[in-house]
Amino acid sequence: GQADTTCHAFVGETVVLPCTTTPPGELIFSQSRLYWQIDKKIVHFFHKGQDSLKDQDKHFHGRTSLFLDQMKHGNLSLKISNVQLLDNAEYICIYKQDEDHQTKKSKIKLSVSAPPRTEEASFPSGQSQIPSRSPTEASHLNLPLLSLHLLVTLGVWHL
């Protein structure tokens, strides 16, 4: 199916994949589980009020976090830091509550682009150096011609 949301990020940035649920009151953590997955790969797992990352996919190690202070109000968003090209995928946010077996599921697509090229920013200063360099290059080009000219004139004198 279609993703609910598409997020865009550049390599190296931090991105927040949005996911919210509207709890009747505050979420009861002791009875809830939150999975962030790519297919069957676990990107982040929150269980019984804390992160439970032993089954987390190694690629995401140390780069994911939840908004713990806002979670009880229904903010289940996932923060991924230092985004990599490999993070480009469709993520599923699955929130389960044991009591009423209610499952909330949403799909978020993350589209990752290569970092914006920094060389372009420094280009103007690079350009200004070119004109100052060309006169010296021009004089280098003239040197062989001059020496050739001298040789010819000298040669003529010898005749």
From TrEMBL:
Signal peptide extent: none
Keywords: Disulfide bond, Glycoprotein, Immunoglobulin domain, Membrane, Signal
Locations listed in the record: Membrane
GO biological process assignments: regulation of cytokine production; regulation of leukocyte cell-cell adhesion; regulation of T cell activation; T cell receptor signaling pathway
GO cellular component annotations of the record: external side of plasma membrane
Residue ranges, compositional bias (Polar residues): 124-136
Alphabetical list of InterPro entries matching this protein: Ig-like_dom, Ig-like_dom_sf, Ig-like_fold, Ig_sub, Ig_V-set, IgSF_BTN/MOG
Residue span, Ig-like domain: 12-111
Protein name per its UniProtKB record: VTCN1 inhibitor
Organism: Sakesphorus luctuosus
Lineage: Eukaryota, Metazoa, Chordata, Craniata, Vertebrata
Protein encoded by which gene: Vtcn1_0
